[in-house]
Write a structure and sequence with these properties.
35% of the residues lie in helices and 22% in strands. By secondary structure, it is of the alpha+beta class. Strand 2 and strand 3 form a beta hairpin. This is Type I-E CRISPR-associated protein Cas7/Cse4/CasC.
């Protein structure tokens, strides 16, 4: 039986530039034939991962429950062996050991690309390098006829690796029961067998209505210039918009448990942290300029069994339009509820939905109202664990 946990949120942001494109403008997209504000899924996932780091500081997660995305894996391995081995020697051994599984180093003591590794994987790599220290040696460098040194290919290095060491290193790449890695997945280009398929999907957030870019013209004054000198000392423009975003994500519960190697307790912990982070974590783009800290005022979480996930973005295919005195968020929520009920009537649904509804939208038979985020999460968790 498949169980999907879906979260829908409506979040109305004051003027802001939360997620910029390469020109510095707020990201946008065409949807339903009109221009919408947009925040990328990568941006929202980064906000959730940052929230996880805060939860670790609060003691909710152990350090070993999470992963890091880095090119500095050799240094991280050296840190794990601090006090046991010389750091520079560990880095050399780590570069050689990881080359046995085709992960080569680049300049500056970094890997060729970002590696997403669980902390337990990093610690296990350090222990393996310490254990097989004397067997991890650099392959001799061959010289070509012109006198230049000839480097070995990834394939050649892997073939020449000590079998026992190589098998040990390969076995370590199992995700390390890291919650964030289990949720968001990873791709290792040189070790496709060690990829981990994500247990959650996050949509790009789009505005429920049409938007137009606006420009903030600003000037700055030199505090120390003479008083008799008029005029600004710097000027420019910042693009921004204001939008009510529809945000959506879905978690495959069975996949999450599988990625965490059957640890249901850790999966439940990770699910709760993800849902909480999805609600409260914000993108940080230009927040020092705009301070658009506006929490979602409508959040619905559905636990769905034996059915396909349902992104409700088409509730806004026709952009929401409000008249004077009407609430954009409330009208968006009513459109979302209406779309959900239409789809349920047409396709059926075995789901339980709880809703945090701070705007007084008419829920009809969409779900059960809750009074707080904490209650919403408690009910969702209880439903999943039934």
């Amino acid at each position: 039986m498949k169980t999907f946990i879906e979260i829908h949120a409506l979040q109305n942001f004051a003027p802001s530039n939360l997620n910029r494109d390469d020109t510095g403008a707020p990201k946008d997209a065409l949807f339903g034939g009109v221009r919408r504000a947009r925040v990328s899924s990568q941006c929202n996932k980064r906000a959730v991962r940052t929230f996880f780091a805060e939860k670790k500081k609060d003691g909710f997660f152990d350090e070993s429950d999470l992963a890091v995305r880095t090119k500095r894996v050799y240094g991280a391995i050296a840190n794990s062996l601090e006090g046991r081995r010389d750091a520079e020697e560990v880095i050399e051994k780590a570069e050689q050991a990881l080359s046995y599984v085709k992960l080569k180093s680049a300049e500056g003591g970094k890997s060729q690309y970002l590696l997403y590794l669980g902390q337990k994987e990093i610690m296990a790599l350090a222990d393996a390098i310490d254990k097989y220290w004397d067997q991890i040696v650099s392959a001799p460098v061959e010289a070509e006829e012109d006198g230049k040194k000839k480097g070995k290919s990834k394939k050649d290095v892997a073939k020449a690796a000590p079998k026992e060491v190589k098998e040990c290193i390969e076995a370590i790449f199992n995700g390390g029961k890291a919650v964030d890695l289990a949720l968001f997945g990873r791709m290792l280009a040189d070790m496709p067998g060690k990829n981990q398929h994500a247990a959650c999907q996050v949509s790009h957030a789009i505005s429920t209505h049409a938007v137009e870019r606006e420009f903030d013209y600003y000037t700055a004054v030199d505090d120390l210039k003479p008083e008799d000198t008029a005029g600004a000392d710097m000027m420019g423009t910042i693009e921004f918009n204001s939008a009510c975003f529809y945000r959506y994500a879905v978690v495959d519960w069975e996949k999450l448990v599988e990625n965490l190697q059957g640890d249901i307790e850790l999966a439940a912990k990770g699910l709760r942290a993800f849902l909480e982070g999805f609600v409260v974590a914000e993108p940080t783009g230009k927040q020092n300029t705009f301070a658009a800290h506006n929490p979602p005022e409508f959040v619905a979480i559905s636990v769905r069994h034996n059915g396909a996930p349902r992104n409700l973005a088409n509730a806004f295919e026709t952009p929401i339009f409000v008249r004077k005195g009407e609430s954009l968020t409330r009208k968006s929520a009513e459109a979302l509820v209406n779309k959900a009920l239409i789809l349920k009537a047409a396709f059926g649904s075995d789901d339980q939905t709880n809703v945090l509804n701070l705007i007084g939208a008419d829920l009809g038979e969409f779900g059960t109202a809750t009074s707080s985020l904490s209650t919403l999460l408690d009910r969702t968790q209880a439903t999943v664990m039934e």
